[in-house]
Design goal:
30% of the residues lie in helices and 19% in strands. It has 723 residues and is α/β, with parallel strands linked by helices. The chain has an eight-stranded parallel beta sheet. A hairpin with a 5-residue loop joins β25 and β26. The chain binds alpha-D-glucopyranose. Alpha-D-glucopyranose binds next to loops.
Length: 723
Amino acid sequence: MTEKKLKELLESMTLEEKVGQLVQCNAGQFIENTLDITGPEGEALPAEDLCRVMGSVLTFEDAAQARALQDMHLAADPKKIPLLLMLDVIHGLRTTYPIPLAMGGSFDDDLMTECADMARKESAACGVHVTFNPMVDTARDGRWGRILETCSEEPLINSRMGAALVKATQGEDLSRPENVACCVKHYAAYGAPEAGRDYNTVEMSERQLRETYLPAYKACLDAGARLIMPAFNSLNGIPCVANRWLMRKVLREEWGFRGVVISDYNAVGELVTHGVAENPKEAVRLAMEAGCDIDMVRNAYYQYLPALVREGTIPEKDLDEAVMRVLELKNELGLFENPYHGADEALEKELYLCPAHRDIARRAAEETAVLLKNEGILPFPKTVRRIALIGPFAEEKHLDGFWSRPGAWKDTVTLPEGLRALLPEAELMIERGCGAEIGAVDESGIERAAAAAAGADAVILTLGEEEGDSGEGRSRAEVTLSRPQLALARRVLAANPNTAVVLFNGRPLVLTELEEMAPAILEMWYPGTEAGNAVARLLFGEANPCGKLSVGLPRRTGQYPMPYNRVNTGRPKPQPDSRAFPFTSCYLDTPNLPLYSFGYGLSYTSFRYEDLTLDRETIGREDALQATVTLTNTGKRAGKEAVQLYLRDPVASVVRPVQQLIDYRKVALAPGETAKVCFTVTEKQLRFYDFDCREVSEPGRFELSVGWADHLMLTRRFELKKD
Ligand code: GLC
């Protein structure tokens, strides 16, 4: 439809029809026609009226339902304005790939592109127009249950992988039925709630906000994301959805965003609960004045916005601008010409869980696994005949994370299925041993498990946290393994030291006790549909682990928040980190450093870093410096290494981190192969926010290193010249 036709359509719409475009309901309510609500004067607002004018729905099932929803609506709407169909497709629709926190650990943007492209195809066939993805809330606190949804504690990874996902999902032309629009979320700093408790308040300096929390949202908008979702939390005293500094000054004026802003689930109504609005009508005014276009569910806009416009509190011009943004998005998706977009039942059947998608999901599960420890145990030889598979996840199918689609877990390849596929001759002895639920005390199965371990050639011990214990509203005050799981580990390892621990969890866990007793630990996070095949191939050497930690693992929960890119302080704790040094920035009861640091991960082969060279010792603002490191695979098998480049700015007008990741690259090497890995460094990567919140770089000396956090090596110095 042309811009002119869109304007004519807008002019032809009644006030109620305009408001309807800003209303989103659950698909289920729409189908069951349970949208009866009361108006501000207590009058009935019957469901069929809302169904007629409503602009979008969320959370529907499949292509058939997508078409039915569209048909129902268009039959009722005299203006024939198609619905927007939106869905949370966070890491796969039917073929589930690993959770984002695992994907970040691949340090491989191309892998994210491949997975997002797969998810796009399945989503489009399902009839999705908009996915509420990527979630790029930088998080440094494992107590927060939604840390599983973000790629990393490092905003650079969230920025690059979020942008890769947006590009792979939206393609070049949203009107093409195979492409899906992205809604980046949750704007802003939802990942930094006080005490790590979901939905809790966020208080931080503008400088910290701009330096650490805003960049990833902007990177996704710069990549073309068409929608953004303000977060539930208040930010420096004002809930995001009503925060005009965030939504007007930064988003619209500074960043020039012209797309659609959609609230989170009833976040508009919750302004009353936050205590910044006297009543829902006041909440609607605040949200509209801040520039929130669509009210997700609970329909406060539908109830109160017409009155606010009629009485002149909200200028109709503002309403028209919001409605036009929604109409423009529908038009860009080509919905006026093809309201079904990509919904295609035959294509669903062809794509869902197809071999090519399973292959992508399996490779992603293999390449995001992090080998934390391996004292000569792994890989197990494939000649092993008697395998004890033990622990709460031994036969678990719920290995695909909080935001996998309902029912997707039924497709998960379990560990026994993966092991039997790889080693059909091997005998599997399976013992659960104990549960993984928080607070569990039952240890009655441990002896049976220990007996099974004693009789085995090799033992796979599965530990972690239940899938429902991370995700939205799932924060924890302690992020340790449950007592029965540690008791199980102690007994099984005593019964058979040839034991590898495999972890399934959605957040960083405290592994301090486990690490002391287990000779091998493989972190799988929630690996998705192909879990069993990936684990089997990794444990028996068909695949070589190459994931790194996207977030550091603490020794104690009390270390949180524990950003890897910490500042030095005036009294840094000297080495060794193993004991307290009074009157320094340390704990009396635990070391400062994580148990395992950001960027750490082992392989079945080994790599040597040498000869980091810079092609110049000084750069100006227009120059680019080439940093080259020689990497050699010194082992006997092929492997991939995430080469990480860290910067330090030892003296600046504000304190700067002792280590900051500024680039990364995944490199594959055959045994004995050597490669020169080259990074380009420009003045842009030296920038930070100064005390006055200006983005600056300051002349002076800088250091570049390779390695991983807390384990930097081959440090070289260069200088940024004065202008
Ligand atoms: C949820 C989440 C948000 C999601 C939305 C729709 O409460 O906060 O991430 O996209 O509702 O399901």
